[in-house]
């Protein structure tokens, strides 16, 4: 009989207890706020990156060309990368850059100095499922440099970007957009030159490896693919 009398009482008490019990449960950690938080990892997506920054080269060119800093001072660069994210950690693709430098001390002040590169690269992402994702990329390709005076023939230097290393840290603004500070550099070897003293591209004797450094900011856009939570 006592049990039967408890049923109506419990039926009234349980609705009152449920909100209290729920309120007493510990709250789960919020994983979607804060500067560093989990995000869906991207894979099988096409990637477009656009960046800009500061660039400067140094080192010997070889032959009678002197040093790189004698003809090209500091300058600005823009970069466009196209890639494919095979798995969340790895992307492969191509890059291209265009630079405009200050003229070096050995050139007339009216001379414009331009540079460009193009090649292939691969990037490894260390934390693809986090909003802060450090990465490193390694590439290789072609490098060109042009000295364009006010009048007369343009001097062209053509060569190889032997190894191009960049280090960055993506910050995922949305599932499809990330921004990153980037620093890096490349080892270059100019192999031929076309100058006012030559009729065509001529091999540079006693070639030297030189270095070009870079620091800037890039934005990446992921298109298609899947987002793995």
Describe what you observe in this structure.
The protein is mainly beta and 229 residues long. Helices cover 12% and strands 59% of the residues. The protein is built from 2 helices and 11 strands. The chain has an 8-stranded antiparallel beta barrel. The protein has a two-stranded antiparallel ribbon with strand order 1-11. Residues 1-31 have low confidence and may be disordered.
Question: Any key phrases for this structure?
Answer:
229 residues; mainly beta; 8-stranded antiparallel beta barrel; 11 strands; 59% strand; disordered N terminus
Helix-strand blueprint:
Blueprint: H1 2-24, E1 41-43, E2 45-58, H2 68-71, E3 72-87, E4 90-103, E5 112-125, E6 132-148, E7 155-172, E8 177-194, E9 202-203, E10 209-223, E11 226-228
Antiparallel strand pairs: 1-11, 2-3, 2-10, 3-4, 4-5, 5-6, 6-7, 7-8, 8-9, 8-10
Provide a short characterization of the protein structure:
This protein has 229 residues and is mainly beta.
User: Helix segment count?
Assistant: 2
Task: State which percent range the strand residues make up.
Answer: over 45%
What proportion of the residues is helical, as a percent range?
10-25%
**How widely separated are the two ends?**
54 Å
SSE succession = HEEHEEEEEEEEE
Determine the oligomeric state from the structure.
Answer: single chain
Taken from the alpha-carbon principal axes, the silhouette is elongated
Average residue pLDDT: 86
Question: What are the segments in which pLDDT stays under 50 over at least 5 consecutive residues?
Answer: 1-31
Q: Kindly provide the radius of gyration, computed on alpha-carbon positions and rounded to a whole number of angstroms.
A: 29 Å
Note the main sheet. Answer: 8 strands, antiparallel, barrel
What's the number of extended β-strand segments? 11
With strands numbered from the N-terminus, the spatial order across the biggest sheet is 2-3-4-5-6-7-8-10
| SS content category | mainly beta
């Amino acid at each position: 009989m006592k049990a039967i009398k408890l049923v109506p009482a419990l039926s009234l008490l349980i609705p009152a207890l449920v909100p209290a019990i729920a309120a007493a449960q510990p709250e789960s950690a919020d994983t979607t706020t804060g500067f560093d938080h989990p995000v869906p990892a991207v894979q099988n997506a096409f990637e477009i990156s656009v960046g800009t920054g500061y660039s400067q080269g140094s080192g010997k060119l070889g032959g009678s060309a002197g040093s790189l800093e004698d003809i090209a001072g500091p300058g600005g660069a823009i970069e466009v990368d196209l890639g494919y994210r095979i798995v969340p950690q790895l992307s492969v693709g191509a890059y291209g850059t265009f630079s405009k430098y200050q003229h070096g001390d050995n050139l007339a002040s009216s001379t414009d100095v331009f540079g460009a590169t193009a090649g292939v690269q691969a990037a490894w992402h260390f934390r693809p499922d986090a909003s802060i994702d450090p990465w490193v990329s390694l590439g290789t390709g072609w490098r060109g440099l042009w000295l364009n005076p006010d009048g007369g023939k343009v001097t062209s230097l053509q060569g190889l970007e032997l190894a191009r290393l960049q280090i960055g840290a993506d910050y995922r603004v949305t599932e499809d957009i990330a921004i990153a500070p980037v620093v890096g550099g490349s080892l270059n070897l100019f192999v031929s030159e076309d100058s006012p003293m030559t009729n065509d591209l001529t091999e540079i004797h006693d070639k030297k490896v030189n270095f070009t450094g870079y620091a800037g900011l890039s934005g990446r856009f992921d298109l298609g693919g899947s987002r793995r939570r």
